[in-house]
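To the structural biology subgroup,

Please find below the input and predicted structure for Leucine-rich repeat-containing N-terminal plant-type domain-containing protein, which we are adding to the shared reference set this quarter. The sequence is reproduced verbatim from the submission form. If anyone notices a discrepancy with their own records, reply to this email rather than editing the shared folder directly, so we keep one authoritative version.
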Amino acid sequence: MVTSLFYPHSTSSHHENTSTRSLPTSISSSTNLCFSSRIFSLMASVPFKLYVNILGASFFFFFFFCCFCLGGACNESDASALLVFKRKIVQDPSGLLATWTTPESDCCTWEGVECDAAGRVVSLSRPGVFYDADNVPVETFMVGTLSSSLGDLPFLQVLDLSSLRYLQGRLPPELGKLSRLTTLSLHFNNLTGPIPSTFHDLVSLDKISLRSNSLSGPLPGSVFESFPSLATLDLSTNALGGNIPATIGRLANLTYLDLRGNRFSGGIPSDVGRLRNLRTLDFSENELTGSIPSSIGELSGLIYLDLKRNRLTGSIPSSVSKLGSSLRYLSLSENRLTGGLPPAVGALSGVRTILLEKNRLTGEIPSAVGNLTSVAGIFFSGNRFRGSIPATIGNLANLQALDLSRNRLSGGVPGELAKLRQLQSLDLSFNPTLCLGRVPAWLEGLNLFRLRLARTGLVGHLPEWLSSSSISVLDLSSNRLVGRLPRWIGKMSELSYLNLSSNGFRAAIPIEFQNLSLLMDLDLHSNRLTGHLWPIFTKKTQYPLGQFFSLDLSSNLFTGPLDDSLGSSPAMAPIETLKLSHNPLGGRIPNSLGELRELRVVELAGNSLSGGIPREVGECEHLRKIVLSDNNLSGRIPAEVINILGLEEFDVSKNRLKGHIPMHNVSFPAAFFGDNPGLCGAPLAPCKH
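Predicted structure (tokenized):
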């Protein structure tokens, strides 16, 4: 899909190899060599008369080399520390520690353990994701706590207990004693509490990965004063807070810095600009405030910059132009940035994706955007840009996605965009002053996957060239399009999403509509469409594709009754949202509605429905919203329906229901039951016997 092209994960450790890391200085006990046989071979070449003279010396050498042969055996204290760790693990379903037996056994032969020549443990690697003999990834887990005994492995260089999922408890301060540790990988666990200040003693570290835990508290600034070799720091997706310490700028060798998905507040320290070796910087999804420091432009080798979903203010610094040809990904979306887009952004000749969505940027989009010759995705939606769309965008031969929606653009669409032969997704929606008039004819020459032109001033009829297009997502809602839905709409065989709501379409749904076998989301609300709904409910599918996920046909002139087999139609099986309100449907609510087990929202208000509320609806266990107001429903409210677990809204007002409202666990307002003269009981007045 197009989205995957423009929202890449950060580089480096997002997808890292979790297999055991080999150390050039380590040697497994199974590969220890005994050199005594070589010595005896050498002595065999010595003349016999010299044996007597060297008898004492040969005994000494024999003793020395025998001791050397035994030198690879595991250190006893290291073995004890590992077994203490094992005792803290209460579940190990895959037997990751099965070979860890007794202190008398050689721990250097245990799976996941590597030793040096002296028998000291230098690597402990038992990740929850590993590869089997066929190189297929296998996932497992362990339940337990991280023992402080691991701090008693003074020669440890690699500690990898990542992706075990249920490893919990605090980070032991004793880990700070591991002064030789180069790699600390504990990501994808359930560790809690703060990062110990003792970590400042881990002077040999080149990689820390603690992402996707539940760590909390501030970052101790002193920790970053003693990591001269640190290249990777990943603390993402935790609950860490406070300010980002300025001392982070002292990590001169840092290439990868990821703090996203925490609760950091305050400003971005200007000292970040001192990290001249940085390639990835991700501070997204925090609570950072203040402006983007101009020192960010000093990161001349930066490839990936993500600051989205913070509370940053001020303007985009023109110093970003210094990131030049190195930067590939820039996201400043969902902040509170103001001012214009600096023309200097055109100097980012290497950028592939640029996202500035949901800010408060103003002024015109500079023509310098046309200098972004490598860009594949431009996302500027949700700002206050005004003026015309720059014709220079037509120079972007690699552009695949252009989103300028929800701005204040005007002046139509420049014909130069017809040159964008790689364009797959175009969204100009909700620019009401764009005043397009007709759907631009030159769009026919593009191989579009997604076209969104909602509320852009379109008028007239649907252009017939759409029938031969490869468009999968089409949104032309909130315009002034008129006429019948054409029969050729059934030829749009790639459609998966269609939104023609809030227009002036009339007449019945053509039977050819049934040929839209890939359609999964349909929104036709607020038109003047008539006739029966069966061409929609019984359309063809290409299982599992083409089954409805959402369906909004409300506020039209469709007539009923609803077919009794509505719930058993293959096209309707997985539907989650069904909105048919404000149509003169009449008839009863079909019992088969209870067969739509994935339903979360059902709205049938103002449909002139009669009869009772089917008990079968109570079998839709995922329902969160039921709106049946303003009908002619009668009978009692089924307890099975009002007590669906998780139900948040149940509106049956303005009907003819009667009897006692069944006991229910959710506190619904009285207005949801009003104008039913025969109803009584909480939240209405008590029943009179």
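Summary notes: Residues 1-71 have pLDDT under 50 and may be disordered. The two ends are 63 Å apart (CA to CA).

Regards,
Lab coordination
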